[in-house]
Design a protein that fits this description.
2 copies of one chain form a homodimer.
Chain A lengths: L10 H11 L4 E2 L2 H6 L14 E3 L4 H13 L4 E4 L16 E4 L6 E5 L4 E5 L4 H10 L16 H6 L7 H4 L6 E8 L4 E4 L12 H5 L7 E9 L7 E8 L2 H14 L2 E8 H11 L11 E8 L3 H16 L3 E6 L3 H12 L1 H5 L5 E6 L5 H15 L4 E7 L4 E7 L6 H21 L24 H14 L13
Parallel strand pairs in A: 2-4, 3-4
Antiparallel strand pairs in A: 1-2, 5-6, 6-9, 7-8, 7-9, 10-12, 10-13, 11-12, 11-15, 14-16, 15-16
Helix pairs in contact in A: 1-3, 8-10, 13-14
């Protein structure tokens, strides 16, 4: 762990930081450096210079100006639930944490918008929306600890993208401090604003490399009514796609997820939840929709039956209560946590939906042929073309050796991604983990332009350097 | 009109252009220079050097490289239906027209996406979608002649934004040629792609100042079912807002438009359409929704009745057929064409919805006090906070003098826009018309950053120079 903070050379900077935020909001103790110097990837050893906890946009601006003057790299720190190392501080950087900027304010029931400081927890916003009779639809497993600023910086996706889109779609305005120390108010909550380039869009998904998000105007919407889910057992992947097309053509689905029998078995064993039905099927699809009235229910049942008749669906169950709905969702949502005990190597890849079956088959053939001893757990968001490929570590394999072997698999997987015109990072971002593979999804010209765009907003190169690209 | 093309100095460039696209696809005749050197603003005298009609991305790329070498300014030319002068070529520029790049291809029923060359007409895409049993929801008065490339470059809005968003929301991929001559394929139709900055977003709404859009992957969706509209007569603007809130809280509206009695009178006189009902009211709201079943209809009627009881609604009518729906829509959609005979001075301004009543009142008081002889026609998209303020030219006032006086009004109107944190261009873009007022909606720092971003993509400054900013 870093001992930089106690070195004499950093003392004046620490003193200046303390002058900005107060002595109790600059931390150099080992626990804080460790906790705030890494994210969920755990692959890099945290070694920040210090962790600073501003409480206002003005304090953030003063910190950035100081960092710029001192050529001190900044790593923005939200809930640190990222899976690509975007929030890792392993090079003596200054971590700027938004833990104390967690106020929600200025709710307007007509605009259905609300101001969130960057450190507002996703679940906090979801609950706040509920209290207003509204809904914040972006949801994922880490909603209990991820922060809005981080969600925006990584354009977080999750389980409801099919109907409600990514975080990008819910950002009506952004207050940011650029790497140059400018405080910008981008779009200010307007639904329609074609007055010049929409710079807000650049900061969404930029992983903190252009500046720091300090506040966001988030859009809320009406809550869904009577959400209802099917879990359907399917013979093969073509069946899942047929099923998706049949339902999608007739109904407004709110989610369409899938997982494999292996995934289900592990979740059932881990959670004690009942299987959705007796029969074991190679794959399962979870479909969700709003059961607005009896007509919709009848329509859904008729579609289900037609899919059984076609031979696409082997068995199925529909939730009849909120409790059943939640239990069916847990079969899908608990996968990530359940398999974490096997030290999974995660891939978050996508292609256009129509190419998913061939894409999945090619990836599976590759991994099975090259690494027959690795167990593969598939799950993901079919409705978005986003697959999560999880390779489990065999018990008898050393962790370092396992990851080294998986890195080789990754290159081969990304070759397939490239051939399918897909993305090496569908929703987790690039961070440190994927930056060597960025060119599998983006051309050399695009990467060169990204670097130049970064130069515009962060001329001193202090904003989360080494993330996305070197 | 320009005689530049016949000048000896331009002859070699013309010859090179002819070598790229063929002699018949470079035009220097007066008619083409005139028609393709301006948009619907008609305020600037067209004077392009030549108009070139490429037929492929490669030809566009060759044209841009030639223009860069020759420091020749390029003006992209779509359907030229813009209202801010974005497609005006008044300075000897080379106009690049997409009239011959109008192919739709590669429709995929699973992805519900389709490739459109930049010159595809909006209505062509709408009809194509219908033929596939799908829907392209962006719609506006000029859909019969505007082109997709232009729609994307101006992030076109229109009458269905409340439910389906702006053009931005339907662009799944973009093929562009930057001002540097690079051909970029941005996002390639992926629903989820968090691999680096989303450069696609920058080109949307950039009005051709960063490069030329040559092709787009457009997202389609399921068609709406049984669209049904109310036209409701309202006493005052607070009533319209109350009405909006009441309906919006209970139903998924597909549109919420408004217009004034003056606007209605002019449309009725011009079109011969019947008034929606006998009584004359100061304002009218047009609400649209999907009448999915009897339950929805009953709900809509109950809401209507509660709004009458509250005193917000004075009278109303609901469409009972597609023909009635279309006739009610014409009361709103025909306004622009109808008032064109009065040489209107148009403003396209927005604020957040909750501030619309005060905003509208302040603007109306200003214009009425300063210019009592001017007739004002209000209409717009309440659901998006977007108002169109149209000032009609008195018959006895000279056109030049009228526009000079209106420009003074504009400054005062934009002061109000600024005070309300609104936009000086909600959906028409900045072009030439609004560039002097850009700072009423964007900070000096933002404008400086925009210039630098332009420099990245267009280092020679040849892409639509002088549009958005100087």
């Amino acid at each position: 762990m870093s001992s930089a903070p106690s070195s004499p050379s950093s003392a004046p900077v620490i003193a200046e930081l303390e002058a900005i935020v107060g002595a109790d909001k600059v931390r150099c103790d080992e626990d804080t450096l460790f906790s705030h110097g890494r994210d969920w990837t755990k692959a890099w050893e945290p070694a920040p210079l210090a962790v600073v906890f501003p409480r206002s946009a003005e304090e953030v601006q003063a910190i950035v100006k100081l960092a710029k003057r001192e050529s001190l790299a900044i790593v923005p720190s939200g809930g640190r639930t990222g899976l690509s190392g975007g929030a890792v501080a392993a090079q003596g950087e200054l971590v700027v944490s938004f833990d104390y900027m967690n106020k929600i304010s200025d709710f307007d029931p007509i605009d259905r918008t609300v101001q969130c400081q960057a450190g507002v927890i996703t679940e906090q916003l979801q609950h706040y929306a509920e209290e207003q009779g509204l809904y914040y639809p972006v949801d994922f497993a880490s909603a209990g600890s991820s922060q809005i600023g981080g969600n925006i910086s990584t354009n977080a996706g999750g389980i409801k993208v099919l109907r409600w889109g990514m975080t990008r779609d819910w950002v009506a305005g952004l207050k940011v401090v650029t790497g140059n120390g400018d405080l910008l108010e981008l779009n200010r909550g307007l639904l329609k604003n074609n007055a010049g380039y929409d710079l807000r869009q650049l900061f969404i998904g930029a992983e903190g490399t252009l500046g720091l998000i300090v506040e966001a105007t988030m859009q809320l919407t009406r809550p869904p009514k009577n959400l209802t889910a099917f879990v359907l057992g399917v013979e093969n992947f073509d069946g899942i796609m047929n099923l998706f097309n049949r339902f999608q053509a007739e109904m407004d689905l709110t989610a369409f997820e899938f997982f494999s029998e292996q995934a289900l078995q592990k979740v059932v064993a881990h959670s004690g939840l009942p299987r959705p039905f007796e029969s074991a099927c190679p794959y399962y699809a979870l479909l969700e929709f709003e059961k607005l009235n009896d007509e919709v229910e009848e329509q859904a049942m008729a579609l289900f039956e037609s899919c059984v008749e076609e031979g696409w669906v082997l068995d199925g169950v529909m939730s009849q209560s909120l409790e059943q709905l939640n239990n069916l969702w847990r079969l899908r949502e608990d996968i990530s946590e359940t398999i974490s005990q096997w030290t999974p190597y995660k891939n978050d890849i996508s292609t256009v939906i129509s190419k998913v079956p061939g894409f999945l088959q090619d990836v599976e053939e590759l991994v099975t042929a090259e690494y027959p001893s690795f167990e593969i757990i598939w799950f993901g968001h079919i409705g978005d073309g986003n697959l999560h490929l999880n390779i489990l570590k065999p018990d008898d394999l050393d962790k370092a050796e396992f990851f080294a072997q998986c890195s080789k698999v990754s290159v081969a997987v990304f070759d397939i991604v490239k051939r399918y015109g897909g993305s090496v990072s569908a929703e987790h971002g690039v961070g440190l983990l994927k930056k060597d593979y960025l060119t599998y999804s983006r051309s050399a010209e695009e990467v060169a332009l990204m670097r130049q765009v970064k130069q515009v907003f962060d001329p001193a190169g202090i904003m989360n350097p080494g993330k996305i690209f070197d």
